[in-house]
Structure formats: structure tokens, C-alpha cells
Amino acid sequence: MEPSANHRHSSDEYMKSYNVIYINDIAFEGHTSKEFKFGRFVMNDRQDGIVSHVFDVFRPITKLSPKFIKYFIHDEAIMQKPLLFSTSNARMLNSLNVGELNNQILSIPSIKEQEKIGKIINVTEFLIAANQKKVDQLKQLKKYLMQNMFV
Description:
This protein is an alpha+beta fold. It has five helices and seven strands.
């Protein structure tokens, strides 16, 4: 999630329809895509704010590692089955049946294991980003060399 620089003014009455989302809350976004057949869950790891009423917002009631759960809930392979049984297709996006979602069972490691896995994922993400930056720099160098090869 990214903060929006697009500030719009809405009536107080319309703003009451928005959901408040706090750090580590989880939102369900029902738009389907090639990557997310039934919609997706996204953890708010940025800042407190508001989201449209079309997003369902959840607050974990047990201790979870944010670094782990952020990736866990966003993994289509893990969430596809629970979402298959708890979403219904509407015109533009899937709607979530929270009662059905509560009936789904997800195996989640202990908090200690979550924290270890979360650290590994963070390090891996950092390495991917650093390597991608290096690849981008090398592509720029290649482009420069190709453009100046026959001067």
C-alpha cells in the first residue's frame, strides 16, 4: 500500500462510509487478475488511514509477525482455497463472505517461526531489490556502450 497524493474533498456524510485502517490491519481487495483469481489480502504496513467501503478491513486477534503475515496472506497458492469457498463474483469485483471465511482453516506457524521466516523473507526481498538495481545499472551501461560504440 502506498499513501495517496491524490487528495479529494468529499462530504462528511460520504466519508462516514469509509473504513479506518490501522498499521498491521489487513484489507481484502476483491478485484481479480491473472495473479489473484479471487481477489487478494493486503496488509497495511505504511500508516493509519482510510480505505473505501468496498474493502473489508480485518484486525488480527492473535499475535502475528507482520513481516511474515504480509507475505503469507498475499500468496495466491495459500489463499486460493479459502477464498474459493468464501468469495462470490459480483459485477466488477469479488465480495467476501466473512462468515464463510471464518469457517476456513489455515495452518500458520508459531509466532517464533513466523518471526524467523519473516526475517528470511525480508533479507531475500532486500537482496532481490539490490540485485535488480545492479541489473538496471548494467543495462544502462550496455545501452550507453552500444550507443557510443561507432562514434
